[in-house]
Design goal:
It comes from Actinoplanes derwentensis. It is a multi-pass membrane protein. One of its GO terms (cellular component) is plasma membrane. This protein has one domain: Growth Hormone, Chain: A. It is built from 14 helices and no strands. The longest helix is centred in the middle third of the chain and has 32 residues. The radius of gyration is 20 Å and the shape is globular. The N terminus and C terminus are likely disordered.
């Protein structure tokens, strides 16, 4: 049975945040979580051009996307415990610095192998931004409040998938795909500067963990023995896999199969992002009436149905482009309802090690997403291949939800932590 509890974290020195400052912090947290999507999505219109320029295959170029996701996954496993031990700010700023250096070298990458290795480093750097942002949310909020904030952050994050391919397409109008990485360098430098000037330390010294390597191993071991937590991060990861099947396959489907230009593809991609963002914001209203686990379960059931329609229409060709776009956008909207709620439920179970818990969550999300990207390429990078991986991801997420998480048995806390920061 759900119950309420008010938690007051240790204050250092005990100063509540004014509303205006809280808004600025939330905005910068959104920019941090946008760094990963910008890194992934901005070069999507360039994939066919990279394939030709580096004289390689579509599958090989898609592996550069996989490399970014692998870097995001392993980077979060590293940065999460560091942020629990040393605070949030320095691991964050160091990670973004790695991203900046990798972006600079991507500009001069001579072949697809080097580009892929540098994309792994980009992912490692972006991981710091992603995991620290999530940990800061958990430092300040819990449960329904965290789910609402994740939804608001998704609004900021959602701007990235809309703008990134459009920016990438515009850059390609006056330079090559290498210019995209010049823009990414500038973006990362800007985010690093804003973060250094705006974000406070949200983890007081007395709450930091200092168990070293063994302590980190114990934390991960404890997390992995929590069946519900593991199930929830798998649900989040499989929802992310559906999203990345779309991300990795869409440029080939819409540009090669349907003959769109890079700019037309950017507009289509933006349409999907609008559906995703709209769902995350509608989630805030849904939370006034339903629990996060109820919304998550309903979205997975609906997403499975829309995914099946997408696969059938893609395989038969019924409806042409419209027959692919409508169910695809509806699946993305359902993913937009899963993504705020599954992480919020997972992180609410382990506030004592929020950085490590957020790291494992992010690693699973990006790791499973990394598997989805090359699967689309191996199946032929067409609409049927993309639809099959999207549908398979939704089936798997629903099975994990019912068999492992068992959402009808979950207990949530309605409380909101008092927002405070350490100085």
């Amino acid at each position: 049975m759900a119950h309420s509890r008010t938690e007051t974290p240790p204050l250092s020195p005990g100063e509540l945040l004014p509303l205006g400052r809280r808004f600025r912090i939330v905005l910068v947290l959104g920019l941090l979580t946008a760094l990963g999507p910008l890194t992934i999505d901005m070069y999507l219109p360039s994939l066919p051009a990279i394939t030709g320029d580096l004289q390689t295959t579509a599958a090989a170029v898609q592996l550069t996307l996989t490399g970014t996701l692998v870097g995001l996954a392993f980077g979060q496993l590293l940065v999460g415990p560091l942020s629990d031990a040393f605070g949030r700010r320095w691991p964050l700023l160091g990670g973004i610095a790695v991203h900046v250096l990798a972006s600079v070298f991507c500009v001069i990458a001579p072949n697809v192998a080097v580009l892929g290795a540098l994309r792994v480093l980009q992912g490692l750097g972006a991981a710091a931004a992603a995991v620290v942002a999530m940990a800061m949310v958990r430092d300040l909020f819990s449960d329904n409040a965290a789910a609402r904030l994740f939804s608001r952050l998704m609004l900021v994050v959602g701007v990235a998938p809309i703008l990134a391919p459009t920016i990438g397409g515009l850059v390609l109008n006056w330079t090559s795909w290498r210019g995209v990485f010049v823009v990414l360098t500038v973006v990362a430098v800007t985010i690093m500067g804003v973060s250094a000037l705006t974000l406070p330390e949200t983890l007081p010294v007395e709450r930091r963990r200092s168990g070293g390597v063994l302590g980190t191993a114990r934390d991960y071991g404890r997390l992995l023995t929590d069946r519900v937590y593991v199930g929830l991060i798998l649900v989040a990861g499989l929802a992310m896999a559906a999203l990345f099947a779309y991300v990795s396959g869409s440029s080939y489907v819409f540009q090669d199969e349907y003959g769109m230009t890079e700019q037309q593809f950017a507009l289509i991609f933006a349409g999907g992002a609008v559906g995703l963002i709209g769902a995350t914001q509608f989630n805030v209203r849904l939370l006034r009436r339903w629990k996060p686990q109820q919304i998550m379960t309903g979205a997975l059931v609906a997403g499975l149905g829309f995914g099946l329609v997408l696969l059938v229409l893609a395989a038969t060709g019924i409806g042409g482009l419209v027959g692919v776009l409508i169910p695809l956008w509806l699946v993305l909207a359902m993913v937009g309802l899963v993504m705020p709620n599954a992480p919020a439920l997972a992180l609410s179970r382990h506030g004592e090690a929020a950085g490590t818990a957020a790291a494992l969550l992010g690693a699973v999300q990006n790791g499973v997403g990394a598997l989805a990207a090359p699967l689309v390429g191996l199946f032929g990078v067409g609409s049927v291949a993309m639809a099959a991986v999207v549908f398979g991801s939704m089936v798997s997420a629903l099975l994990v939800c019912f068999l492992v998480v068992r959402p009808h048995r979950l207990v949530t806390h309605e409380s909101v932590k008092v927002v405070a920061v350490a100085h």
